[in-house]
């Protein structure tokens, strides 16, 4: 029998090593992310989810440290095409959740203070593995606060926790296609949580 202290030390070491080892162990065996079935996606997510949340939170960003406690809006991550063919999973904060989960298609007005955080997983078919992609964030301000973008602020964090740099129009020019839904594009229908 192993000495309990030895076992504990080995476990601690493997947990620490796990941080770096895990990222490269999330193997995928498809050529095209659209070919992933639900079981394969679940397996990838189980493998990568702890590392993801940790990576986003590295710089202490207030959304990054909190979003996993928010309401998850899909049953699993899914590939929608937009956002670089990544696997996407959106979380809604308490202010946003009730309205967002209606997945309403017209006359939507998300309350000020709504925050949607969407984690993403890049499927590198070349390396045959899943790696953490950016955390995409939308925050709704008070009426009139950002007239060019329907009062939304678009933001993003790189997997190292640092902010991404882009023009608001880069995100908004696409999200404005869902103007009747207050710019919310929603997850793919097949993975929306029922409410
Ligand atoms: C080419 C179109 C396109 C562009 C550009 C784009 N998005 Fe999206 N976005 C989508 C689609 C489609 C979805 C819903 C798909 C999904 O999440 O499964 C979405 C969903 C989101 C969500 C979840 C809330 C929602 O709409 O349901 C956030 C947050 C988000 N995008 C942020 C951003 C940010 C930040 C940028 C700019 C860096 C950006 N998006 C650029 C198409 C786009």
Task: Report on this structure.
The chain has 195 residues and is α+β, with helices and mostly antiparallel strands. The protein has one domain (19-191): Chalcone isomerase (3-Layer(bba) Sandwich), CATH 3.50.70. 29% of the residues lie in helices and 18% in strands. The chain has 4 helices and 7 strands. It has helices at residues 4-25, 38-56, 94-100, 168-175; strands at residues 71-72, 78-79, 87-92, 115-124, 129-132, 135-140, 152-157. Strands 1, 2, 3, 4, 5, 6 and 7 form a 7-stranded antiparallel beta sheet that branches. A hairpin with a 7-residue loop joins strand 2 and strand 3. The longest helix has 22 residues, at 4-25. The model is unreliable at 1-23 (pLDDT under 50). The site of heme C (HEC) has 24 residues, from strand 3, strand 4, strand 6, strand 7 and helix 4. Heme C binds at residues 78, 80, 82-83, 88, 90, 116, 118, 136-138, 154-156, 166, 170-171, 174-175, 184-188.
Index terms:
single chain; 195 residues; alpha+beta; Chalcone isomerase; 4 helices; binds heme C; Cytochrome_P460; signal; Cytochrome_P460_sp; Cytochrome P460
What's the main sheet like? 7 strands, antiparallel
Radius of gyration: 18 Å
Q: List each distinct ligand once.
A: heme C
Could you name the CATH topology? Chalcone isomerase
Query: N-to-C terminal Cα separation, in Å?
Result: 50 Å
Keywords: Signal
Pfam family, one: Cytochrome_P460
Domain Cytochrome P460: 67-183
Signal peptide: 1-23
